[in-house]
Amino acid sequence: MVQLSTSVCLLGGLLGLFLLVPVQMAPTPASMCTPLKTLNDSLSHRRRYMKHNFPINYTIRVHHNEVFKLSNISRMRLQVEGLDDLVLQRLWFQVNQGVLKKIIRVMPERHPSRPYTAELERRFRDAEGVFVQSHPAEVFQQELPESIQDTWDHLTEEPDRVPESRWRYVSPKSLLDNFCHTMHCLFSKCFVSTEEQQDYCSVSYWRKGRKKDLQPESCSRYRGR
């Protein structure tokens, strides 16, 4: 009788763990949506701060892997069968951490866009903190697929060891466009709208927005609910 009771308890415990796993491993935990929507609000002002406050054709030097577009996400998904969105989300945070640092670094203390960018970085770090807390520590210790690990290693190289061929010159505005579009793609559940379901990972979706001139510089044909 004792053995039967023990077996039932163990079975119940295992079932409980199985029920918890999908919640812990969900690609976009509900807690992520609030800081991401806050980021989205900040990004809606990027045209003013990243284009109008810079000289025409102004560019900054970034690692070629920091030019992280929707096409990069599509290519990685094709290269790695069954690639988990969580892996790409981790990479997204790593990429844009470097992007924001490089944009701030080129701004003098009194640059009119510096307070905006500093606030954007703060909100980004808030979102990153929630992201880390929303998953078990083991998730961040798992090995990455080889091609993703290569990208990660390049991103974390010391700048003086990066060959000149790996640097790109990109406008701050373009970098934040990429930031915005890839955020919507990888965390799409946080950006639902009353419109018919949108494919935020489609380049044509963003191009359509520009043609219609529907706030093309904001991430937000989405409206916070």
| Helix content range | 55-70%
Largest sheet: 2 strands, antiparallel
Q: Kindly report the spatial arrangement of strands forming the biggest sheet.
A: 1-2
Content of β-strand: under 5%
Mean pLDDT: 83
Tally of strands: 2
- Seen as an oligomer or otherwise, the chain set is single chain
GO molecular function: macrophage colony-stimulating factor receptor binding
Keywords: Signal
Protein name: Interleukin-34
Pfam families: IL34 (PF15036)
Description:
This protein has 225 residues and is mainly alpha-helical. The chain is built from nine helices and two strands; from the N terminus they run H-H-H-E-H-H-H-H-E-H-H. The protein has helices spanning 2-24, 33-43, 46-52, 70-79, 85-105, 114-133, 146-155, 172-186, 203-212; strands at residues 60-63, 167-170. Strands 1-2 form a two-stranded antiparallel sheet. Helix 5 runs antiparallel to helix 8. The protein is globular. The N and C termini lie far apart (54 Å). It comes from Sciaenops ocellatus. Residues 1-25 form the signal peptide. Pfam families: IL34. InterPro entries: IL-34, IL-34_sf. GO terms for molecular function: macrophage colony-stimulating factor receptor binding.
